[in-house]
Specification:
The protein is an alpha/beta fold. The protein folds into two domains: about 240 residues, Spore Coat Polysaccharide Biosynthesis Protein SpsA, Chain A, CATH 3.90.550; about 60 residues. Helix content is about 50%, strand content about 10%. The chain contains eleven helices and seven strands. The protein has a seven-stranded mixed beta sheet with strand order 3-2-1-4-6-5-7, sandwiched between helices. Helix 6 packs parallel to helix 9, helix 8 runs parallel beside helix 9 and helix 10 packs antiparallel against helix 11.
């Protein structure tokens, strides 16, 4: 137990036969149950887990669940969450099976949730001061870009490093969310934040150190993930606007966003048309140029005001 709470740790694993034993061996003693989800690994991940649990006398502590077909890291975490709820866990953390998450930092992740200060906490590697040096640069930049989009989509403007999978969540928050609706792949943590915001759960950002070069192998391709997660966040943004600010409790910021997007799109469309006409040798009137400028200026102002209203509305959720 940790601070009087029963703690479960979900460990999603895919082809982690080289790393999974170290993850299990270094799991802190206060963790009550470990839920390892083998997402249809092609190697001996499950065999290594069974051998370690039996040999170390931890068969009662480790629950191995194997997917017969690969569902993605998000699907694996969902399976683990469900198992943890059924087993009566009060706080559930997630630690990857590749060893990228330092078990010594688990108390930092658990503390805000165990103390009741937040319903969800997540690690933030970008504020460590050494993230640029220790993190592959392409991944760092991709993470920073998706963090910016997630701030807008989720309404949690204080969070960063949204791709961090080192998290903890309360059983109350898990029960409030339809776990089956969560995105099954790498956009899982982004989708989770959007859904938590609609329910007005507090989220804590915890400073942790980046951990790379320890033998981990990632199947994530940044250039594939960014477009997919960006589209997911766009859908999540509009869904959150509808659920939180129209259906559950009306807020005028939806009008600011609507006018902002509309004016910006019309201004961009007219601006592109003017440029094309000018290139083709046609004359462009001063009035049209002024109209485009006004549309873009007002569009950006409406959008920025909407963001400010959103920040004010969610400032108590940090």
């Amino acid at each position: 137990m940790f601070k009087g709470c029963r703690v479960g740790v979900v460990v999603p694993a895919y082809n982690e036969e080289r790393q999974i034993e170290d993850v299990l061996a270094t799991m802190p003693d206060f963790v009550d149950r470990i839920f390892v989800i083998d997402d249809c690994s092609a190697d001996k991940t499950s065999d290594v887990i069974k051998h370690w649990a039996k040999g170390k006398g931890h068969a009662h502590r480790v629950q191995l669940i194997r997917h017969e077909t690969r569902g993605g890291v998000g699907k694996a975490i969902t399976t683990g969450y469900k198992a943890a709820l059924e087993d009566g866990m009060e706080v559930v953390a997630v630690m990857a099976g590749d060893g990228q998450m330092d078990p010594k930092e688990l108390p930092l992740i658990l503390e805000p949730v165990a103390d009741g200060k937040a319903a969800y906490s997540k690690g933030n590697r970008l504020t460590s001061g050494v993230a640029w040096e220790k993190t592959p640069h392409v991944r760092y930049l991709g993470n920073a870009f998706l963090s910016l989009l997630t701030k807008i989509a989720s309404g949690y403007w204080h969070v960063a490093d949204t791709q961090s999978g080192y998290t903890a969540i309360s059983a109350e928050a898990l029960r409030a969310i339809n776990l089956d609706d969560l995105y099954p792949s790498y956009g899982y943590p982004n989708d989770m934040l959007v859904r938590l915001n609609v329910r007005n759960f507090r989220v804590a950002d915890v400073h942790i150190a980046p951990r790379y070069g320890i033998g981990e192998r990632s199947s994530m391709k940044v250039w594939k993930v960014i477009p997919t997660v960006s589209l997911l966040l766009l859908r999540g943004f509009f869904w959150r606007m509808k659920e939180k600010y129209v259906i559950r409790d009306f807020h005028p910021l939806v009008f600011f966003y609507a006018f902002g997007f509309l004016m910006t799109l019309i201004g961009l469309g007219l601006g592109i048309a003017e440029v094309v006409l000018r290139i083709m040798g046609n004359a462009v009137s001063v009035g049209t140029v002024v109209l485009v400028a006004l549309l873009l200026i007002f569009g950006s102002q409406f959008t920025l005001f909407a963001m400010w209203f959103d920040m004010e509305s969610n400032k108590d959720l940090r």
